[in-house]
Amino acid sequence: MTIELCVLLWVSDGCEADLVEYEDTVLALIPQHGGQVASRVRRLDHDEGPFEVQLIHFADQDAVNSYMNDPVRQALADVHRRVIARTDVIPVEMVV
Length: 96
Prior knowledge:
Blueprint: E1 3-11, H1 16-27, E2 35-42, E3 52-58, H2 61-68, H3 71-75, H4 77-83, E4 84-92
Antiparallel strand pairs: 1-3, 1-4, 2-3
């Protein structure tokens, strides 16, 4: 069963470039785990709300778990905690 996730990321103050670098690195791992980044967008303004929104498809829950436990991703946990103030992961389904 395909799993589709909408990921909303709020950036820590002054860490926009570091968040982008971190996400570039960890999102590049997704295909190795049976997933695909369908879209990735960022805010143009600096109002409240998420800085970046991603739509990610995985083959199944095992693929999600494999990605979440990837050693490269795990090694960057301190970077994640520093640059990302908040993460919401919302299971979604495509309707269009």
